[in-house]
Amino acid sequence: MKNWRSYRYKTSQQNKSSSIAKDEVALLAERLEFFIPKLMEVMKPWQWFIYIFFWSLFVTVINRYDIATWSDFLIQLFSRVLQNTLSIIPSLYLIDYLRPIFKGMSIPKASMYVLALLMVASTISMILVMLVMINIGWFEYDRQTFILNILFNVLISGGFTLVFLLYFLRRYRETNALKQSFEQKLSAQNDVIKARIAPHFFFNTINTLVSLIESNPARASALLQHVSALFRASFNGAREISFEEEIALCEHYLAIESSRLADKLEVSCQLPDEDVMYDMVITALTLQSVLEKMLLNVVEMTTETIYINIRVTWQQHRVVITIGVALPKKTMIINHDLRQHMNFYIQAERLRAYFGQSADIKSSVTSSRIITVIDYPLQDVSL
Description:
The protein is of the alpha+beta class. The protein has two domains: 22-181, no CATH class; 198-377, Heat Shock Protein 90 (2-Layer Sandwich), CATH 3.30.565. The chain is built from 14 helices and seven strands. The protein has helices at 20-31, 39-42, 45-62, 70-97, 99-103, 107-135, 143-197, 199-215, 217-235, 243-261, 274-277, 286-297, 335-341, 345-355, and strands at 240-242, 265-270, 281-283, 306-315, 318-326, 360-365, 369-377. The strands form two sheets. The protein has a five-stranded mixed β-sheet. It starts with 19 loop residues before the first helix and ends in a 6-residue tail after the last strand. The model is unreliable at 1-22 (pLDDT under 50).
């Protein structure tokens, strides 16, 4: 295993750079934090005022039967707009302020509190607006009409609040179902990766260890350390790791295989500078699984030395990893079979789940080389 540079770990679970995958997970977590979103972030203030105006117009049109002239209609509309503004805007800010309290409640209980809050605010604002209108002479006081208007307004406010609560609850359940589906899919793909790394590789490694324990105990001990590090990473549930850690996993894997394949394998690589790799992330075992499949289908099929070259670039917010394998000249390998085996669908799906649909793993086979390209977006915060 020549020209393979080792990098010390500078990143930790707490200070890893963000990625599209982490942003999506954070967004899902924020949406599931409480089934009612931050209301003042749903729309901008001017959009809320437009909504309030048309809602007031709708309510005024519904209650138009006691309106005789256009001036009465405009006065009624103005009072509705003022009353709804005084009830809705402060209530939304108050609900956002009380989110930490509401989050600790059950959904029905939180819904009842929100409904009661908006209905009380609507009642208070309606009473204040009507008293002002009566004092300036725009309305004549009539006890029955006064009470009926308040009840009508409270019922309308409660109805609209219930509609929005049901809408938010539906979106909350859809997001929760999406999160569960996302986690189940990733868990299944991780299980597949774990299952495929275990069988042939595990038994080959055990056989190598058995042969080394008596002949070379020191080398067997070193090999066990590589095996322990690789399988610990495979089964610790880590989904996204730093690129330095992925390189280290590949080193462990290649060290294990080199002890069995002797001089049949030479690996060289062109990696970014250490400071650049500090900010890079990748899904765990992606590069390692590509190398494993290449070794399984090429190196083990020949007695010739196989040269593998790895080149990593990170430009224009995209990471491109190119793995080139020179096919043996003396051993006949059927290209059609190689194309079937060089299928990285599962790894590509895991990559897309974290970095978006533009991520992909493609492999091309010619008579002399296999070239596999791992390509995924990664925001470069330094640009």
